[in-house]
Amino acid sequence: MDTIVGFREVTVSGKGQIVIPKELRKTTFPEGTQAVVVAYTDHMEIRPLSYVLEKMECALMSETAFEEEWDSPEEDKAWENLLEHAAEYQRKKKD
After folding, report:
1. What is the pTM assigned to this prediction?
2. pLDDT per residue as tens digits for the range 48-89
3. Which of 44, 66, 81, 95 is a good FRET partner for 15, with 20 to 30 A between their CA atoms?
4. What separation in angstroms does the CA of 62 have from each of 8, 10, 70, 81, 82?
5. Neighbour-count burial of 53, counting CB atoms closer than 10 A to its CB (0-12 exposed, 13-18 middle, 19+ buried)
6. What share of the chain is helix, strand, coil (3-state, %, to 5)?
7. Higher pLDDT, 25 or 95
8. Between the CA atoms of 12, 50, 86 and 37, what dihedral angle is there, to the nearest 10 degrees?
9. What does the alpha-carbon distance between residue 29 and residue 3 come to, in Å, rounded to a whole number?
10. In terms of C-beta distances under 8 Å and separation of at least 24 residues, what long-range contacts does 80-88 make, across chains too?
11. Which residue intervals define the domain SpoVT-AbrB in the entry (predicted)?
12. Selected residue with higher pLDDT from 41 and 78
């Protein structure tokens, strides 16, 4: 189970931007970290891309299994994006 390391209030700007408070950035999102925003109906999560790719490794290896379920152009584009990031992550992991 994930441990909560901080809780801070932020304000969303007119452009939809937020600033991650410095003390929280240091622990989870050091400079240069790639992140993923996961939107639910009642909240959003910001996760490091590496975390998402590790959790989805099984799904990424099972593209054929999802082929019948994922049939919209938007889902295809999202899948291609994930595959691209997964390949880059695997290259970096080997170095």
Report:
1. 0.53
2. 888 888 877 766 666 666 666 666 778 778 878 888 888 888
3. 81
4. 38, 38, 12, 15, 13
5. buried
6. 45, 10, 45
7. 25
8. -20
9. 15
10. 82/53, 82/56, 85/34, 85/49, 85/53, 86/53, 86/56, 86/57, 86/60
11. 7-51
12. 41
What are 37's strand-pairing partners?
A: 46
Average pLDDT over residues 30-42: 89
**80 CB-near residues (< 8 Å, 6+ apart):** none
Dig out the tokens for 84 from the structure. Answer: 């691209």
**Tokens representing 21?**
């408070």
Contact (Cβ atoms closer than 8 angstroms) between residue 59 and residue 66: yes
